[in-house]
Design brief:
Largest sheet: 2 strands, parallel
Strand order of the largest sheet: 1-2
Number of strands: 4
Order of helices and strands: EHEEEHH
Helix content: 25-40%
Radius of gyration: 20 Å
Structural class: mainly alpha
Number of domains: 2
Number of helices: 3
Length: 138
């Protein structure tokens, strides 16, 4: 899970957008190298006030880090994030066993529906259906 990345929208207006696409490219790179990816989040939804001083000083300074400004208008990075989701939402779940929903709890691992889901995923992805480590610690 790649969590809580952000970048200030600077004077040119595209700095955060460029950062978003750079981080997304890095997530895809590690995913394509075999690292399971279960999510990618931007922090935060809205701009922050006094975030640059770790909320230790009450300066009333708006830090333009959010997908939306404090008036709830979408920022350029919000539009880019929206486009990223639109472009990738159908691809990632089909290419990652980790993104299959529902998640199987350990107590449900041997349920018939869970076994069936593992078999279908294994056939689609050519991966083993059993865990790499046995329950006996072998």
């Amino acid at each position: 899970m790649h969590t809580e990345t952000n970048f200030v929208q600077g004077e040119q207006g595209d700095e955060a957008v460029n950062w978003l696409w750079k981080e997304w490219a890095n997530v895809l790179r590690v995913r394509n190298n075999g690292v399971p990816v279960v999510g990618f989040t931007w922090y935060s939804l809205t701009d922050q006030v006094d975030w640059d001083t770790a909320l230790c000083e009450n300066n009333g300074r708006v830090n333009r880090l959010g997908l939306f400004d404090l008036e709830r208008r979408i920022r350029p990075v919000g539009e880019a994030y929206k486009k990223m989701i639109q472009d990738w939402r159908e691809v990632l779940p089909t290419q990652s066993v980790c993104l299959r929903v529902p998640v199987v709890l350990p107590s449900e691992y041997n349920e018939q529906w869970a076994r069936k889901n593992r078999q279908q995923a294994a056939q689609a992805h050519n991966v083993p259906t059993e865990p790499a480590v046995s329950d006996q610690g072998e």
